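Weekly modeling sync, notes
Attendees: AB, CL, MP (scribe)

Item 1: holo prediction request
CL wants a bound-state model with flavin-adenine dinucleotide before deciding which constructs to order. AB pointed out that an apo prediction alone won't tell us much about the pocket. Agreed to run with the ligand included and paste results into these notes for async review.

Input as submitted:
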Amino acid sequence: MDYPDHFDVIVIGGGHAGTEAALASARTGAKTLLLTHNIETLGQMSCNPAIGGIGKSHLVKEIDALDGAMALATDRGGIQFRVLNARKGPAVRATRAQADRVLYKAAIRSILENQPNLQIFQQAADDLIVDGDTVKGVVTQTGIRFQARSVVLTAGTFLGGVIHVGLDHHAGGRAGDPPSIRLAERLRELPLRVDRLKTGTPPRIDARSVDFSVMQAQPGDTPTPVMSFMGNQSDHPQQVNCFITHTNARTHDIIREGLDRSPMYTGVIEGIGPRYCPSIEDKINRFADKDQHQVFVEPEGLTTHELYPNGISTSLPFDVQMALVRSIRGFEQAHITRPGYAIEYDFFNPQDLRHTLETRHIQGLYFAGQINGTTGYEEAGAQGLLAGYNAAARALERDTWYPRRDEGYIGVMVDDLITHGTSEPYRMFTSRAEYRLILREDNADLRLTEKGRALGLVGDARWARFEAKREAMEQELQRLKNTWVHPQTPEAEQLGTRLKTPLNREYNLADLIKRPELNYQDVAGLKGEPIEDIQAAEQVEIQLKYSGYIERQKTEIEQMRRQESTRLPEDFDYDQVSGLSNELRLKLSQQRPETLAQASRIQGMTPAAISLLLVYLKKRQ
Ligand code: FAD
């Protein structure tokens, strides 16, 4: 049957990409349908119940700055929060939260169910309605035809999914869920480059069978950090400890002896796995000289005994899993509640996408999440938000948008994927961003919220809070610059021995904060009242302390922007550019960069080749 209502946007898949996509589209004002296998699994964490970490928290906070759901749900579901790299500079600091998977899922579902313009429908999408080179809608498993102006596909690990435990394998989207076979077959008929990747997960363990007394407890930070710019510690449920134990020589022997029944080492799995989240069998093989590996023992929630042993992801046969788990200190009596497994799935070459995440060959069809070759909830959520916004913008005939590399980690990720493609699951790191000092997790709102508001993504509550923070910061910066401390006064005395060199002239408070030995808390109250808004105070301190570096990076960004604004026409005939090497001609013709800056990031590109392109472009005008 034809569904009677038409939609602006249909999002297929209710995982991390799909939920952010549906919410972003609906926030923008588009009439949106979220079509997913199972309403009970909306926002389900397929693997580790944790959000954030190095590079990833930057993405979560950018989603948050654009009024997405991930950080808000983390604050409502987080049971252990830590700031990683706390002693390093602010560019690489990262917030990480262990989540109660039930609370997290409930928070996502509640946000979805309360979103105006958004409807949810439970059923598998089996086919796309494509007219010429334009998508027009989706057909479900039972033949319901939904019409829409744009479609966002976020099918995660489900397309052609095959689950492996040892040499046994069966079709599945993730443990307990069906795969998407019909849709995968249909997509293979479209002019899209498709390949296989794999990922894996560890066995889960019953906490009642574990001896925590021989493990190192790892409490969260105090005061408890928050993930969202809108978050409060009072949003958090009860906080609990994680624990640390280690594999040992015996564990490694057990694994080596089981490799002849490993799907990875007998060639049964062909897809490439995540380099930075390797299975334990991979680690033993790659780091053969190491006699132990860390295992983080993480609770899956407050109302379950299940534990996630982070670090021993495996697809070895179950008997080997049992033996290896029980060889680990504290796990001698462990009961496994769910076996570990690996999953192979279809992904699409992201070089076939535009920066808006629209496919180049099918108009109105957008891809986001794991199907673009990435791994991780945060990477998926960030792409979902971008694809959801652009799908809505296309349907509503508004301007499309994507952040540049100097505006957000979302921009870095999408540009990396589109420019270079990926042959292994792509995850975010701070080292992928060239403008790290500008792209901090703490200032994601200052970078993106105003833009999000202009696009219609940011609601009134967040906007009001953001404006208040920005005003508090500006006023405080002025106050600090205009408040002076003179030598040998009571205020100077208060700084006492904390000063490396005594004050020999008058200083304003801003200059004092710039001194390495002092911080905002030491100085701001010397004269007048420090501000109460902790986030605003943190920004004031970082902006003052790193002002020299930040200014330098801004100059570099200005230079890059000039190249970014030089667009390369889609029909650019690179064969006509004399002087270009055949290799570069081929790469440019295949990758079709949208701007001169993107061309400059293609591997092997030289400044001389960029000049040739510029000269040719000028001649064409
Ligand atoms: P998913 O979260 O997979 O969501 C896909 C959604 O689409 C699901 O709701 C599904 O039901 C729905 N769907 C699919 N097909 C259809 C259809 N035809 N019709 C309707 N609905 C459909 N990430 C890491 O960072 N590190 C890891 O170590 C790691 N290990 C993993 C291990 C396993 C076994 C699995 C399954 C995943 C692992 N992940 C890991 C990946 C992480 O789960 C994903 O990166 C993340 O969930 C991707 O989000 P997504 O929204 O793209 O897809």
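Recorded for review: Residues 460-482 form the longest helix (23 residues).
Action items: CL to compare against the apo run; MP to circulate these notes.
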